[in-house]
Sequence to fold (345 residues):
Amino acid sequence: MPKPNKTFLRALAGEILPVPPIWLMRQAGRYLPEYRATRSEAGSFLDLCYNPDLACEVTLQPLRRYDFDAAILFSDILVIPQALGQHLAFKQGEGPQLEAIRDASGLGILNVDRIHDTLGPVYETVAKLSASIPSHTSLIGFAGAPWTVATYMVEGKGSKDFANIRRFAYGDPDGFSRLIDILVEATTQYLLKQVEAGAECIQLFETWGGVLSENGFERWVIEPTKKIVANLKVVHPDLPVIGFPRGAGLHLIDFKQQTGVDAVGLDSGVPLKWVAKKLQPLGPVQGNLDPMYLITGGDEMIDETRRILDVLRDGPFIFNLGHGITPETSPENVGKLVDFIRNYR
Fold:
């Protein structure tokens, strides 16, 4: 395969660059006034996700402001359970609401065969983005990893203690495995369609992997991710895959070595000197500024950004946040962050 010429893809391929590429999780979002205007035009959040013209527009908005090195498809991780047949709604001030599947008896409503009927507009969005983004910008497709998507499917909404899903997974591991297997297959098909439509890289979001025990992390995070990555690489051997197991801590080493991901996303709590010594020699890393610095701004934001760059500069690295941009973020602070990184030496 020819050597990639886009900065983001070069870093993912393991090249050490003097100035790292940058993109930010949730870079298309409510902190931007133009996003809020488009969101209002769309109607509901799901209407925005399934409108290829508007989803493409909000994906492009942060590129116009900041010229990020990568764009990420605008969608949501919960389109998968909806496409499988689970009812999904987003309520103002409450977040996602699903009809909870609390045990294996509820799995009968899920049907992998029909997911593309629902997800067709998402693939159209990817194709539009592939034709619309600047030539130097990389296009990231994404999905939620099976454990994280399953947390919403079983809890029925966000959770603080994840008691229902842990009860299901630990109390009926065979039944829970059926749910994970369904999600592995659906996620694989979904991501392959995104690549077919033009995505150049994939990111898997494992937002809630950190709530699991050691054995649970291996069984419900590492193994499903390994299967998805292997499935993708059979069809696209050179496809870069980023895994973002938030809260994984010391599990990051096993996650990188066992799943087959090309790069690992870092949350804000990961000690960077440990990353530089133990994890970065295994492959590219991505992260990990605390999003709160984009709210507070000032010298503290610049100092923390410089620290991250200084510690990780000697290995393959992509600058990002430790989690997504929050709605309270100042667009001006994002601009200052990008300018500082672009001029870092």
Q: What stands out?
A: Residues 84 and 255 are 27 Å apart (CA to CA). Strands lie at 70-72, 88-91, 95-98, 138-144, 201-206, 241-245, 263-265, 285-289, 317-321. Residues 173-197 form the longest helix (25 residues). The two ends are 31 Å apart (CA to CA).
